[in-house]
Amino acid sequence: MSLSAALLAGPFLGPAVWEPVAVSLHDEFGVTAMVPAPVPAVADPMAILAALQETLPAQDDLLLVAHSNAGLYVPALTRALPVRGVVFVDAVLPPAKGDVPVAPEGLRELLRGRVDADGLLPPWTNWWPEDDIAHLFPDTATRKRVEAEQRRMPFDYLTARVELPDGWDRIPAAYLAFGDTYAEELADAQSRGWPVRTMPGAHLHMLREPRAVAAEIMRLAGEAGVSPTTSAPVRPPSP
């Protein structure tokens, strides 16, 4: 089977955040790369997981590349699809078992008073001060593309929890951080024995340096034991 990279954006954003990296992975590394369509704007994480699972190819070995909140869905996807490895990119890193909240309490409290009459959160770029958002984008056109795909998720999504299959993190994996926002996750990944790397930048750094980010993803995947030419590892049995 050939290796395909599936670049997962968090539910609040859409494919535009990953499309430049997908192009670089294909053109410079010969890796088929796809970015799933936006997931449904619903409160139930299981519905989001089902949408991702239906979109991702089941015929190829997959390298999952998960950004931000999409990291929550990696554990279940590793059991449902032929996943050869994972690279978390400035993403939530779930524990090896149990369950995990969609959002920390601090974020829920920050946004609780900004929910509209229909129970919907504001678009993601409106969560933060403009000075914190403007530098995320290389130009106005890119910002418009990203903002056009933003999902207004129900506030109740932030209160949900995601169940995790035991031992999912025995699969080859690595972690790429942009700056120190996800420093705890980076340290967690390192403690699991995974390859890790930090690129100076902000949360959407893949929009500013897609070629460099693509190169780091492939380098980390190779260090984890996953490359377009390696054979698929034996995955741990489902419990």
TrEMBL record:
<feature type="domain" description="AB hydrolase-1">
    <location>
        <begin position="41"/>
        <end position="215"/>
    </location>
</feature>
<dbReference type="GO" id="GO:0003824">
    <property type="term" value="F:catalytic activity"/>
</dbReference>
<dbReference type="Pfam" id="PF12697">
    <property type="entry name" value="Abhydrolase_6"/>
</dbReference>
<dbReference type="InterPro" id="IPR029058">
    <property type="entry name" value="AB_hydrolase_fold"/>
</dbReference>
<dbReference type="InterPro" id="IPR000073">
    <property type="entry name" value="AB_hydrolase_1"/>
</dbReference>
<protein>
    <recommendedName>
        <fullName>AB hydrolase-1 domain-containing protein</fullName>
    </recommendedName>
</protein>
